[in-house]
Amino acid sequence: MFGDIRRIVVKVPLNVWFIFGGLGMPALGGHQIAGNVGAVLYMTPLSIGVASSTLVARTLGAKRFDEARALGRHGIALACGLACVYGVVVFALRPLIVAGYTPNPAVVAAAMPLVAIVTFYHFFDALQITTAFVLRAHKVAIVPTAIYAVALWGVGLGGGYLLGFDVGGAVPASLTGARGFWIANAASLMLAVYLRRVGKRESGGAPQ
């Protein structure tokens, strides 16, 4: 399952990277900076997710179900709490962070709003990846993979293309270009989290 999810998560930014070539070098450079910042931030919730999955699986194997649910919740809460802290710090320091990547003023101007979006996007990224790993420990695999495929490819990539290139001709200027892709990507993660919660209610509650 997680090979599938990682391929979905990785291939979307790679495809967007090729699409950004049509938006010019400053937009491409800004996207690369934002993507790198997001990837670095992602390492913490990914690690927490792996650790949580291991602990939850071990306690489930020992038939300590209440402890397993508590561990799952604590892992998700820790990842989300750190994501909030990281988001505030990166948002406050983004001029210094972006300046550390490039002195080019055009690229800096393109990267600043994208990194700001990443600080918001990171919370939902942390929430979805740790939740997915906890679900893995409970052997819930197919539904999360399907949700991520629809959300990340449909809303993230498809919606990003519609916004970024103003396909309908009615998109506000503030949502076009590289910002449109990153906003759609953030929306796709929010949708993935929402659909998972709806699925949990419909199924009577996922064991986490």
Number of domains: 1
Order of helices and strands: HHHHHH
Secondary-structure class: mainly alpha
- The number of helical elements comes to 6
User: Looking at the structure, what is the overall shape?
Assistant: globular
Low-confidence runs: 1-12, 202-208
Helix proportion range = over 70%
Number of strands: 0
Protein name: Multidrug resistance protein NorM, putative
Organism: Burkholderia humptydooensis MSMB43
InterPro entries: MATE_fam, MATE_MdtK
Keywords: Membrane, Transmembrane, Transmembrane helix, Transport
Describe the structure.
The protein has 208 residues and is an all-alpha fold. It has one domain. The chain has six helices and no strands. It has helices spanning 2-20, 25-61, 65-101, 105-137, 142-164, 178-202. Helix 2 runs antiparallel to helix 3 (65-101) and helix 3 (65-101) runs antiparallel to helix 4 (105-137). The protein is globular and about 55 Å long. 39% of the residues are buried.
